[in-house]
Amino acid sequence: MRAVVIVSLLMTACGAAMPASYAQNPLAPSSTSGAGAETKPLPEIKRRTLDGATFDTAEARGKKVVVVKFFAKYCEPCKRSLPWFQEFAKEHRDVAVLGIAEDERESDVRDVATMFGLTFPIVHDTGNALSGRFRVSDMPITFVADRKGRIRWVGGPDQTEAELEAAVSASSR
Question: Could you give the residue ranges of the DSSP H alpha helices within 92-147?
């Protein structure tokens, strides 16, 4: 019994020390690059945003690249990435940008939006239904879908601005 507990603790510790790679997300494109890469569709999202509007991924299909970023108030890497993500959203008006907040309370989501001056649409994912659809296991995580609604890139906690820019550029073609 003691051996089982020790193995269980070691597995938990290893999991915490080695967070899931964005490439391991089930929605991430296959490791094959180029035109033959297997891609999956962006899960449908039609939700009310904090400002009362409705964000609908179906409206962007065929017209815009879609970038979806999951974050939460308690997530320290999220806090480091939100300022440059806000700048990205301001500079890329031709991209449909959506933030999905995983906080329990909407007041926490609003606090984060105010703290970082976030102006892009934000959905409060009550009950984590969207994070379940996107198979989110690590935050922040960002999904980039092309105009056809196919996920072309998934960026994890260590993503850079340059990587996101490159992913959006490649998805715009």
Answer: 106-116, 129-133
How many Cα atoms sit within 13 Å of 130 on the Cβ side?
Answer: 25
CATH number, position 126: 3.40.30.10
Quote the domain boundaries for residue 81: 22-172
Q: How confident is the model at residue 25 (pLDDT cuts 50, 70, 90)?
A: low
Looking from the CA of 6 toward its CB, the CA atoms found within 13 Å total 3
| 15 in any annotated domain | no
CA-to-CA distance for 57 and 46, rounded, in angstroms?
Answer: 7
Using one digit for the tens of pLDDT, what is the confidence trace for 68-91? 999 999 999 999 999 999 999 999
Is position 89 within any domain?
yes
Beta strand 96-101 with 122-124: parallel, antiparallel or unpaired? Answer: parallel
Q: Could you give the number of structural domains in the chain?
A: 1
pTM: 0.80
